[in-house]
Amino acid sequence: MKKIVLLLVLASFALAGFIVVRDQFRQDTQAGATNQVEAAAPLLPVVKAAESVIVEARVVPRREAGLSMSTNGLVTQVLVANGDRVAAGDVLIQLSNARQRAAVAQAEANLRNAELRVAELQAPARAEEIARYQASIALAQAGLQKVLDGASNGDVVAARSRLATADAARREAQAAYDKVSWRNDIGALPQASALERATNDYVAAEAQLNDLLVGPRRADVVRARAEVTSAQAELDLFLAGTKSETIAAAEANVAAAQAALMDAQAALAETTLRAPFAGTIAAVNVELGESVSPGVAVIHLADVDTWRIETADLNELSVVDVQVGDRVEITFDALPDITLTGRVQYIQPIGQNVQGDITYTVLVELAEQEARLRWNMTAQTTITADPAGRAAA
């Protein structure tokens, strides 16, 4: 029995060796035939397939902005809500502005006054103004002549009459005073004050009569002549016109008033927040009656009618293979049934350190829009080098 088993094992080894030799012979034969064919065919250059860069991305609006006020203040109007569509220039938020409106009104009044002053200086002399100056001269000349002529007989008679009346009143007051002069409180009695007034009136009437009898005093003549000279000088200056320096100074005041008005108008405009572009209100972060500060975003506005794609993790090893104008295919996790195309529009020049990796943001302009896209949807982009697109970019 052992001999039979031994014979079977030997037979198995012999059969296995035959199969190995046969397979090796076939391989050698095929290799030889292949080498003969390759040797017979001409050599061709190696063609390298265009490389693609695959990177994660997200859907973003073509345009978005966090809007803030330029000044602090109290919110008096909130004119939009989330989801509202607005046009460029629409008012979104209004702050209290009573002080700013008053400043504008004051600046406008100052400008009008400055402009009127320039117009007055530049206007030609009017006949009625000349007549007014001439009347002043005539009045001054009449006064001088009266001083030079001295007092008339009528003036002297009137002065003597006033002096006599004043003397009679003084005597009467003196008699009334004498009747009570023995009293200790005489100074507090009305007779004392009446005598004082009567005495002063008498002295004044006597001085006036003496002036008329003596004739014009030199000081009065000098004063009257000076009034005539001053009136004539005012007319001469008016007829000569305004000096150019005076007009230039008035025009400078107009320019300063205009600048002040522009500054006041700018301060008023800062109390109103307007939409810088047409879009949809994505968020309203302020309420009526709330105080706001400059630089704090109160409205988030976005143009959600036009989407583009923004890469999320394009690293420094891959960004070197991407150029503006390259072709891009985009797929979406939420929309597996569509594939959109586009082109690289912008490559961020400065990389960002994200968990130790330097990444660059790439913006892709879509060839066509898809109504079902939403902000921040996940996308996958396949960027392929496109020499023609690069040349056209």
Task: Kindly describe this structure.
This protein has 393 residues and is of the alpha+beta class. The protein has four domains: 1-43; 64-96 and 270-297, OB fold (Dihydrolipoamide Acetyltransferase, E2P) (Beta Barrel); 122-249, no CATH class; 304-392, Elongation Factor Tu (Ef-tu), domain 3, CATH 2.40.30. It has nine helices and 15 strands. It has helices at 2-40, 98-122, 127-149, 153-180, 190-214, 218-240, 244-269, 316-319, 387-392, and strands at residues 52-68, 73-78, 85-86, 91-95, 272-274, 279-284, 291-292, 297-311, 314-315, 327-332, 339-347, 352-354, 357-360, 362-366, 378-384. Strands 1-8-14-11-10-15 form a six-stranded antiparallel barrel. A four-stranded antiparallel sheet has the order 5-4-2-7, with no helix packed on it. The longest helix has 39 residues, at 2-40. The protein is elongated and about 130 Å long.
- Helix and strand pattern: HEEEEHHHHHHEEEEEHEEEEEEH
Strand order in space, largest sheet: 1-8-14-11-10-15
- Count of DSSP-assigned helices: 9
Characterize the overall form.
Answer: elongated
Query: Separation of termini?
Result: 89 Å
Number of domains: 4
